[in-house]
Amino acid sequence: KDHVYRDLAKLEEKEYISRERGMARSIRLLRTADGRAFQPHEVPVPRTVSVPLLGNIAAGEPILLPDSSFSVYDSEAIELAQEMVGKRQGVYALKVKGNSMVDAMVYDGDIVIMQRYDGRPEDGEIVAIWLQDRGETTLKKFYAQGDWVRLQPCNPTMSPLFVDARDVRVQGKLLAVIRQVQ
Length: 182
Known about the structure:
Layout: H1 2-13, E1 17-18, E2 28-29, E3 48-58, E4 63-64, E5 77-81, H2 82-85, E6 91-97, E7 111-116, E8 126-131, E9 136-145, E10 148-152, E11 161-164, E12 168-178
Parallel strand pairs: 3-6
Antiparallel strand pairs: 1-2, 3-5, 4-9, 6-7, 7-12, 8-9, 8-12, 9-10, 10-11
């Protein structure tokens, strides 16, 4: 109890709060943590960023795409809080089709937020993979195994895909999942 009194006294001394002596629940905020005057009716406007919705990603059997590059469909976009993506560049969204990633909490109909990436991911990272020889793309966990890559679903009822590492192109890494609850 003494430490609470001491902390409140310090905040009052630094003019972050004011209190009425002898009155419970009388603390009033005077300044914000960054030192600005507190405006009780000021509603902060969250900063948002527009993220393009590029289409679908298979979470099951890979799906055929017209070519190896993602393109924006119908100029759709999703507005996200800036804090969700930070200062990252190359962020995009895809709608999930299939249930191969359910144990990673990625379900059919979810929207995955991805960051463009064309290097080699760490083993176990969830990535969007373009299978060049098949002309297909899929969302799976990545595991390098010598000259092969294992694309591991997160669903015990499904088998992994083993593909030649030369035929794999990583399109992006998973940043977040958005699910609409109905």
